[in-house]
Amino acid sequence: LDINEEYYDEYTEHHFIPVSNRTNRPRLLICYSSSDCSAHVNVVLQLATFVQKHMATEVYLDLWDALSVTEEGDLGWYCRKIKESDFVLVICSKGLNQRLYNQRDEELDQRANTSLAIIAMIGEEIFHAKSLNQDLSKYMTAIFEYSQRSDIPTMLNLASHYTLPKDLPLLFSHLHGVALQKPGAYLLIENISENGYSKLPAGAALLLAIQDARILITGF
């Protein structure tokens, strides 16, 4: 299925396309912090599962490649995956931005240092690309509804930003390089609308994980 050709050849008011047969799957690296809580990590895991299953994307997630991470180390693994990936999505949160940093907890200290190093590395990549007037579309940031825009590290401000799950269609558009609207037509993507994603088992699991994390992190 060539999404670009099928979309731009149509001039109907609403054009609905399936993505299950998409052959050119972009490679997406998801970066996140485990310093918030296990509920936040579960949200990231459920997002990765949904994107891989229903957004025709090959997802790289450290939780799915534990052996290589152990062999290469966190930074080594992320360095390699940043180079191999078509896109990099940084899930921003308080933990990632070091607002929950606790120096008395050695385990959290190590996680925080790793997250900072990874974000600094991505920030340098963005700055380098910007200085050479290169395309910055490889890099994206996202927050879930229980996080704030202020949780996005300043060094990542030049990256495209999304709020999930409501911006799932925009994320799909970014990953596959298709416009959601044009004169006389509106692109509807199978199972990825703001309300439609939760009708799938993977989408329902993502929604439940977000609700659990929101209650735990915000208290409501």
Walkthrough of the structure:
The chain is α/β, with parallel strands linked by helices and 220 residues long. The chain has one domain: 3-Layer(aba) Sandwich (Rossmann fold), CATH 3.40.50. The strands form two sheets. Strands 3-2-4-5-6 form a five-stranded parallel beta sheet, sandwiched between helices. Strands 1-8-7 form a three-stranded mixed beta sheet. Helix 2 runs antiparallel to helix 7 and helix 4 packs parallel to helix 5. The chain is globular. It starts with a helix and ends with a helix. The N terminus is likely disordered. One of its GO terms (cellular component) is membrane. Keywords: Glycoprotein, Membrane, Receptor, Signal, Transmembrane, Transmembrane helix. It is found in: Membrane.
Distance between the termini: 43 Å
CATH class: Alpha Beta
Helix fraction? 40-55%
CATH topology: Rossmann fold
- The CATH architecture name reads 3-Layer(aba) Sandwich
Query: Which parts are unreliable, with pLDDT below 50 for 5 consecutive residues or more?
Result: 1-14, 99-104
For the record, the count of structural domains works out to: 1
Please, what is the oligomeric state?
Answer: single chain
SSE topology string: HEEHEHHEHEEHEEH
Share in β-strands: 15-25%
Shape: globular
Please provide a brief summary of the model.
The protein has 220 residues and is of the alpha/beta class. The protein has helices at residues 3-8, 38-54, 66-72, 74-84, 106-131, 168-176, 201-218, and strands spanning 15-17, 27-31, 58-60, 87-91, 139-144, 160-164, 181-182, 185-189. The chain has one domain: Rossmann fold.
